[in-house]
Write a structure and sequence with these properties.
The structure holds 2 protein chains of 2 kinds.
Chain A lengths: L5 H17 L17 E3 H8 L11 H5 L7 H4 L5 E3 L11 E6 L7 H4 L7 E3 L6 E3 L2 E6 L5 E6 L13 H12 L17 E6 L2 E5 L7 H6 L11 H4 L10 H7 L5 H8 L22 E2 L8 E6 L5 E3 L10 E6 L5 H6 L5 E4 L4 H7 L6 E4 L7 E5 L6 H7 L2 H9 L3 H8 L5 E2 L23 H10 L19 E6 L9 H10 L4 E6 L2 H9 L5 E5 L27 H8 L10 H14 L6 H17 L3 E2 L1 E3 L3 E5 L34
Chain B lengths: L12 H11 L1 H18 L1 H4 L20 E3 L5 E14 L6 E24 L3 E10 L17 H37 L1 H16 L2 H11 L6 H31 L3 H8 L4 H9 L4 H24 L11 H5 L5 H6 L5 H24 L5
Antiparallel strand pairs in B: 1-2, 2-3, 3-4
Classes of the chains: A alpha+beta, B alpha+beta.
Family (chain A): Belongs to the bacterial solute-binding protein 5 family.
Protein name (chain A): Peptide/nickel transport system substrate-binding protein
Pfam family, one (chain A): SBP_bac_5
Chain lengths: ~650, ~375
Amino acid sequence: MPKLSYSTVFTASLLATTAMSDQCPTVASPSGIAHHGLDQVELSAFEAQTGDSLTFHDNPNLEKLVNRGPLPPVSERLPAEPLVILPYEDCGTYGGEMRYLARKLESNTSEGLSWRQVQLVRVDDDLRTIKPDVAKSWAWNHDYTEITFTLRKGHKWSDGTPFTAHDVAFWLNDLINNEELYPTTRAPWSVGSRAEVIDEVTVKFVFDVPQPNLLEHLVTQGQFYAAFAPKHALIPFHGDFAEDADAKAQAAGHNTWADWFRLRWGHWMDRTTHSALGLEVPTLESHIMVTAPEETHRDFVPNPYYHHVDSAGQQLPYVDRHRERFIDPSLYVIEIINGNVDQKSLGPIESYSALKENEAGGIYKVILPEGNKGPYIAFNQTHQDPAVRAIYADVRFRQAMSMAIDRDEVSETLFLGLGTPGSALPHGTPTEKPGDQMHFSGFDPEAAGQLLDEMGMKMGPDGFRLRPDGEPFSIIWEYSTQFTGAPDFPTLVAEMWRSVGIDTQLREISSVDLGDKGRANALDITMIYDQPTYPVLAGGVDTLVPPFHINDPLMGVPWMDWINTNGSQGEEPPAWINDLVALGPEMAREAPGSEAWNAALDKITDIHREQMPIIGIFSSLPRVSVINKDLKNVPEITTIGNTSYTGYLQPWRVDQWYYPAD
Amino acid sequence: MTAIDMNPTELSRLQLARRVFHGNRLASISLKLFALLIALAVFAEFIAPYSPQERNRAYSDGAPMGITFVNEEGRLQPWPLVPARITSRDPVTLKRVVRTDDTERWNLKFFVRGSNYELLGLFQSDLHLFGVSGDGYLHLFGTDRLGRDIFSRTLFAFRTSLSIGVAAVLTAFVLGVAIGGMAGYLRGWFDTVIMRIIEFIQSIPTLPLWLTVAAAVPRDWTAMQVYLVMTVILALIGWTTLARRVRSRVISMHTDEHVLAGKLAGCSSTRLFLRHMLPAFTGYLIVDLTLAFSTIMIAETSLSFLGLGLREPVVSLGVMLLPAQSISAIMLTPWYLIPGLFVVVVVLLLNFIGDGVRDAADPANY
C-alpha cells in the first residue's frame, strides 16, 4: 500500500487553509475588515472594505437534499444584499448532521428551534447589542411610538416566493391582531399596534404607547415569535381572505377556519413543524422541513433561500441535516454518552458527573454556561385560611424561612456545589446594592427563631411552633419535581424549616394538579425553576411584578383577579402589590438600560427588598450542556436558555457551525 | 426417652407446646432473632447512633462503613476501630469522592453521648449504645442523599412498620375471630349477610382503592394521621380471610362429640365457643397471624414505595425504599436497598416462627 507522506498532506492542507483565509475574514482574524469585534456586515460595506466583489457559492448537495427538482443558481436565490457572516474561526465546509433530543413532537423544543431560528433582529454574543438579521436596518421616531424596518430586497421564502413588507404587515394586522385567532392578544406590545406597508421592503409598526424595548423583546421573550408570516401560503386558509376558508376547514374535520389555521401557523415558530401541514408553509429559517415529521423524529435540510453567506461567499448553513429525535428525558444522558447527540442542554445538574466521566471516550464536550437561578419558593400570601394567610403575609415569616435555609448545604448536597447562594433580588444589574445578593439569605437559624418569636409563634410541646393564636401550625408543601431542580430539594428544605420549629408536611403531586391548585389559590407554596437571572433586557421584569411569572401565577391569584376586573372580583391587594403593578409597565415604557429604566427597576427592587415575596436559593446556577467536540466555529458559550436576555443558542450563531472535512 | 417424657401428663399444655416449638431449631432461632429485632426497634433511640433526621454533610450518599481491628500502623488491636474517611469533590466530575484515610482511625466506643432523645416517652437521655471518637462518624449501612444514617433510620423505620403491623394485625384478628366465629356459630341469615359483606370487601380491587384513599386524604393531614388511617384500612381489609377460616372451623366442629357434650352439659354459647372450640384451632389462628403480619408489613412497604402511604418525615421501610426506585440509585447507591433486605428477613423470620408455632399448637405433636 503506497504510503502518503505526512508532510505532503500537511503542506497541502496548510496551503488550502491559507488560501481560504485570504478570502475569508473571520472574527478571529478580520483581515481587511476594519471594525473591531465585528461578526456580521452588510454586503455593500463588506465589498467596500475588501475592495472586491464577493462571489457566491452554495452547498453542492443542496438540490439532492431539498429534493424539489432543479434550483435556480445561488446568486438568484440570495437576496440582493445578503447578510455577510464572519465565522468565528474559519469559513467552513458543507456536510454533516446535527442531532438533537426533545420530549415529543408536540412539545415546543426551544433549543432545537434555536439552531435554525431567525428574527427581524438578533442579539450579539455580547448579549447586549441588537444587530440586523432579516431586517437590514430600522429607525425609531422620536418618542418610540413608530419603528420602520427596512427588509432585504430580493429576499425569498424557502419556496422561492418573494418575502416582502406585506408578509410582516400580514403577521401583525391579520394574525396577531385577529380576534378569531387570538381572542386575547399575544404580545404585550401588540396592544393598540398596527403595521403599515410603505413599499415592498419598508414596513412600519405604529403603537399607541411608546415601546422602546420592542427590539429587546424580540430577542428575549419574543425570540421564538417570528414577526412575519408567509402571506401567500396562508391566505387560502384565512377567513378574512378566503370566503371558503370555513368550508374547507370543516371538510377537513375542524370547526372553524381558525382551528385549522393554527395547525399551519402559530406565533411560536415551532408550531408549523408539528405536522405534515408544515410542509406547505415556507419559512426564512436556516433549515426547512422537507419530509413529514414522525412520532420518533423530525428532519431538517438547508433552506436554499437562506439569506446568510459567509465571508468567502458560501451560502449558509454549512450543516446538511438537523435531526430532532423524540425520546423520554430519562434517556437523554445515556443517549449523549452513546454518542447519539450533537448538542443538548439538560435540566438536572446531577447529570454533569455521568457526562463528565464519559467525556473522554465520547464525541462531546461538557460545558457549564450560566443558566438561571435554580428553584424559587413563594408563600401564598392569599391563603384561603385567614390565620395561615396572616402568617404567610407577615414579611418576618418569609425572612425567617429564608434564613433557616442553609444554601451552602443545599448546593453541596443537591447541586454538586455549583450553586452560588443568593436571594431572588436582581443580580448583576446597575441597580444592585451591596447587600442584595445575600439579602436575608445567609444561614442564621437563631435570627430566624427570633423573628418567629417576635411574630408570637411560640414553641409547642412537640417541638414545633404554634400559630400566634395557639393552634398547631404546619406548612403543607405540595410540589412537583419539575420545579424543584433536584428531587430531594423539598425534603432538605423542609428538614431545615423543621429544625427552626416550623412543621412542614410534604406532598408530591403531578405538575398538572399543581398548576390547577395554583390557579385555584389552593396551595401554601408555589415554586418555579429556572427563573431568568436579571432583567437586563425587556423581558425580565415580568418575574418581578405580579403575578411574578410569565405563564402561571406564582402568587396572589385573588389579587390578580381584582386588578384584572377592576375590583369586581377577587380581593383588594396591598399597596405594595399595587405599586409593583404600576411600576411594571412604567419600566416597560423606558429604553432598557436608560436612566429612567434603571430608576424604575430600582423602585421595583426596593419593594422586593422590603417585602421579599420570593425566596431565592441561588443567585446563579450553571446549566449542564453538551456539544459535539468536532464542531467548529463554536464560540465560548457563556449562557444557554437564559430567557431574560437571550434565546438558547441564538447569540452563538449555529448557522456557521460546521464539521471539518476528514 | 428422657425422664420428663415418661411423665407427660404433668406438663401443662403450654409447656408441651414450648417443647415442641424449641424442637424446631429454625423456628426457635427465628424467634430469638425476631425478639432481638423487636428490642432493637423498641430501644431504637438508644441503639441508633444518630437520630433519624440528623444529616452528615460530609458523607451524603456515603457507602456503608466497616469496622476493623487493624490500627493505622497495620497492627491488630483488641478494640474495634473505624478507618477515618476523607471526602472531597472530584475536580473534574464534581462527584463526591470518599477516601479511606490510612493514617487515622476513629475508635469505636460504647455508651457515647450524642443527640438528645426521649426513650419510651419516659426518660430523657443522650446516651447511645455506640459511636466513634472525636469528629468521626460511623454509618454501618451508609447514608442517603441528604447524609442521613441508613442504619439508624432502618431501626426507626422498622419500628414504624412493625407498629403498623401489630396494630393492623391485632385489629384484624379480633374482628376476624369475633365476626367469623359468630357467623359460624349462629349460622342462618347472620351468616349469609356476613359472608356477602366479606365477598364484597374481597372483590374490591386494592390498587384503585389505595389510589382513591390517597386522593381522598385531606391535604392538611399530618403524616401521623395518614399513618393511623392506613393502619385502620389495612385492618379493615385484613380481617375477611381470617373470618372465613374461623367460620369454617366452627361449622365443622358443630357436630364434634366434645362440642355436643358441652352443649348437653348446658354450657353457655360463649363458654362453648371460647373453651371448647377456639383451642382446637388456635394453631391455625397463630399461623394466620404471623402470615398476616408479614403481608401487612409488605403492604405498608409497597404503598409507601408507590408514594401512596406514609411520607417524610415519618420514617418507614417503604418511605426509605422510595428513592431506591431509579436505576441510577441501584447502580450508584445500592445500599439504599438495605431496608428492603430488612423486610425480606423479617417476613422470612415470621414465616419460620409461624411454621414452628403451628406444629407446637397441634396436639397431635405432643
